[in-house]
Every structure is written in C-alpha cells, then in structure tokens.
Amino acid sequence: MASTAKVMGSGPRADSSGPQDSMPRSLGLLDGAAIAASSTAATSSIGIGLGLMAGVVGLHLPAIMLLAFLPVLAIAGGYGRLNRSEPDAGSSYSWVGRTLNPWLGFLTGWVNTVGTVVFMAYTTTVTGSSIVQLLDEAHLRSVAGLRLDADSTVQCTLIGLVVLVAAALVAVRGLGLAARLQKALLVFEYAVLLGFCGYGLFAGDQPFSLDWFNPLTIPSFDAVAQGMVLAVFCYWGFESVFSVGEEVHDPRDASRAGTLALVVMLLLFLLAGTAFQRVLPLDELADNGAHGLTYFGARLADQPLAALPLIALMFSAVASLQSSVIPTARGLFAMGRDGVLGPVWTKLHPKHRTPAVGTLLITAVAVALALCSVVIPTVNDLISAAVNAIGIIVALYYALTAVAAAVRFRHLLRTDLVEGLRAVVGPLLGAAVLLVVGGYLTWTFYDSTDHFELSADNGWFELTVVVLMIVTGLPAAAWARWRRRSAYFLGEAAGTPPEKA
Length: 501
Fold this sequence. Notes:
The chain is mostly helical. It is built from 20 helices and four strands.
C-alpha cells in the first residue's frame, strides 16, 4: 500500500532524487494560499474567537487583531526567507534544528505536532456541533429514532470524527484535490462573511468609535497580553504553507501564499470585529462568544438566510481539520526522513505520492484523543486547557523560528539592508513581542491562583499543560539522539545551512 522514502539525513533534497522517494510539485500560489487560509480558519476564529476576545479587551477587537498582526507578519518574513533558501517539509523543525540547536528544533516540531493534534481533537466536536445545529435549522431533529442534540458531546464528537476521517482520506489522494476542495469552501465562507459583515456595518445601531482601532485605549496590559495571545492563536496556521514547500512549483510562491493569507485574514478580522461591534452590545458579544457568528447572523437576517453563517462555520471547521492533518503529516515525514522518528512516517502512497501512512496515523491519534475526551472527563479538561495554552506554545515556536532566520541571514545586514530588515530585524522584533506577551501571560497564569486543580480555568493547570507539551518531547528527543543515533542530532549528512542564499 505504500513505499518507503529513503532516510538520508536532514534536508528535503537528500531523498528527492527521483519520483519514487519524493512528493510531486503540484501546487501553485493560490493552492498554497488556500491551504494557509484554511489552516488559519478565519471563519471559525471569527465565529468563536471574537466573542471570547471581547470578554478580554472589550470593544477593541479591531485594535487587538491589528496589534497581533504586526509581529506575526514580521515573523512571516523570516519564514518566507527560510523557505526560499531551504524549502523543507519540516519547516520550523528543520530550520531551528539546523541553525540554532537540534534539541530546540526537535521540540519545535514536537510541540507543533502535539498542539495540532489537540486542536484537531477539539475541532471535531465543533464540527459535529455545527452540523447538528444546521440539521436542527432544517427541522431534521432525529435520525433512526435518535434525537439529535447540539449540546451532546458524544453525538457531536462522533459526527465530527466522520468528517475528520473523510478529510484525511481526501488529503491522502493528493494536495491538488485537497486544495481544490478548500478553495471551493473558502469562496463560500468569504462570500458569507463579506455579505453579513458588510451589511452589519450599515445595519448596526451601536455607535461607531475610532477608539475601537486604538490599542492604547485597551483597559490594561493584562488585557493586551491575553488578547494578543488569543489573536495570535487566530493567525496560527499561516505557516502550514511552508510545510508543503517541497510540493510548491516555486518556493517563492509558498512565501507569497503565506503573506497573502495573512493579509486576507487581517482584513476579514478587521471587518468582522467592526461589524460585530456595530451590531452587538458588548455584553451580548461576550456572552455569545462560542456562538458569536451564528448569533450575529440571526440578529441580521431571518431563516433561511440566517443559517448561512452556520454553514460557513461548518465549512471552515471541515477545511481546518483537513489543513491541520496535511502539514502535520509532512512535518512527521521530515522527522522520519531525518531518522528522529521511525521510518513508518516516511511511507508514501505509491500512486498519489503523499505521506499516506503518516496522514492516517496522525488522524488515528486525534480520533483516539477525541474519544477519550468523551468518556474521561479529565481528558476533556486537558483538551480545553491545551487549547487555551496553545497560544503560548505558538508564540514560543514562532519566536524560535524568527531567531533562526535572524541568525542564518544576519550577513544580509551588511550586504542587502532591505532584505536584512525583512529577514533579520523584523523577525527579531516580532519574536521579542511574542516572548514578552507569552511570558507575561505565563506569569499571569501562575499568579492567578494559589492551588492546583484539574480545571481548564485553573492557572497552574494551564501552565502544567504547557510544560507537559514541551517536556514530553524530551524522552523522544533523547531516544532519537542516543538510541536511533539520528544524523539530525549528530550533525552527519546534514551539511551546512545555506546561510549565503
């Protein structure tokens, strides 16, 4: 059912000498942008995240989204330069490991994988819930005598898992098919968002204020830090296009696609944040956080038009599930190729040339975690806490990747000042901002309580989840270093990073 790619040390070209051991270059600019945009899942972030952020920053949603965009865009410049120099399915795992330290690189890949798997397990329930809600709007409230309930974690999770498996199977068929599907879903999502949010700008009765766009009027630095982490989580996923850098026709297209997706996200977040605040008072916006988009749609239109935002939210959840498994499988492919993980992760489908086994394995892990959350209450709390903690993890590995770019391309400050600003100075400033914000939020979690409790609202439990996501990678890294004797750790066959590129 699959063929095994050669494991010949670090770097994408070490095992791309022929069609039997490499993935095909099948993606263009718009394909990459679709994958990045689907991974950031703007509709889901707007539908669920804006209301939650409003509870933190008040009527400053546009300001916090703009503020978080700046360091992420600066870091995206470092990602783009690294990808142009060395397109690699492992992206930040490979770049950090080859430039800074292999242990840091491995942990970067590890926390990215763990965070994405947790996100997939969480999103399956969100997907199932949106499907059940949509069926309820269509007056289909029971199937085979079983009453459908959007508040049933079991029902929503099982329905979402069916979607997850289907999305993974499409990904196995090839990125071309997955990208076409995601572009179709995105067109519908964005049409709904533009229509409803554009109408909301004029139909809303809440007074408009330029202070909505002024980050200096956010009540406190604590609100800024928490809002920034939540906003960075909303932008999280743009870098997924760099995980398919080996499958893009031109490495520059991956860089352009990531930037394009980020800019589109910003514009959508600014539009939606402004429209939400024009239509909904702050208390309604914060109280309906997890159902913000559907509540917003119901305030603006009657059925059946009011169901369109719910359909868009469902499409976004489906696309984000698929766009999560695609880069994760490719990151594990790169780690297997480097010998830090077993060769099973490097097995490619004989026809479609995709990491089929890795795609199905990582999907199976997400399925198992989602099922555990249904039957074991503490696992559900763990997932909830992990989702809240992912923002800190994302800030950390974004910062590490930015530092790797600055170290690798530091010579540009002498030879090409403009490129030096984009590949060195910008990423370093972005990294500093994210580290300060993440560090402050970490302290806030620590200082928020005086006891440990298995609850997603307990600050010490939140910090424990962050620590667990990191330290669980240490035994795996040690095994790869001393048992597998991976060339990635030993420096053999890795070569010297192309710093002068």
